[in-house]
Amino acid sequence: MRDNLLERRQKVLGRHTPLFYDKPLHLVRGEGVWLWDADGRRYLDAYNNVPHVGHCHPRVVQALCKQASILNTHTRYLDEHVVAYAERLLATFDPSLSNVLFCCTGTEANELALRIARETTGGQGIISTAFAYHGNSAAVSAISSVFTPPEKRGPFVRNIPVPDPYRDRAGRPDGELAQAYAAQVGDAIADFRREGVRFAGILLCTAFSSEGLPSLPVGYLPEVAAVVRAAGGVLIADEVQAGFGRFGSHMWGHQLHGVIPDLVTLGKPMGNGHPLAGVVARPDLVERFTRESMYFNTFAGNPVSCAVGMAVLDVLRDEQLLENARRVGDYVLNGLNRLKARHQLIGDVRGRGLFFAVEMVRNRASQEPAGEETGRIVNAMRDRGVLLSRIGIHNNILKIRPPMSFGIEHADLLLETLDQVLTAS
Amino acid sequence: MRDNLLERRQKVLGRHTPLFYDKPLHLVRGEGVWLWDADGRRYLDAYNNVPHVGHCHPRVVQALCKQASILNTHTRYLDEHVVAYAERLLATFDPSLSNVLFCCTGTEANELALRIARETTGGQGIISTAFAYHGNSAAVSAISSVFTPPEKRGPFVRNIPVPDPYRDRAGRPDGELAQAYAAQVGDAIADFRREGVRFAGILLCTAFSSEGLPSLPVGYLPEVAAVVRAAGGVLIADEVQAGFGRFGSHMWGHQLHGVIPDLVTLGKPMGNGHPLAGVVARPDLVERFTRESMYFNTFAGNPVSCAVGMAVLDVLRDEQLLENARRVGDYVLNGLNRLKARHQLIGDVRGRGLFFAVEMVRNRASQEPAGEETGRIVNAMRDRGVLLSRIGIHNNILKIRPPMSFGIEHADLLLETLDQVLTAS
Question: What is the ipTM of this complex?
Answer without folding.
Answer: 0.97
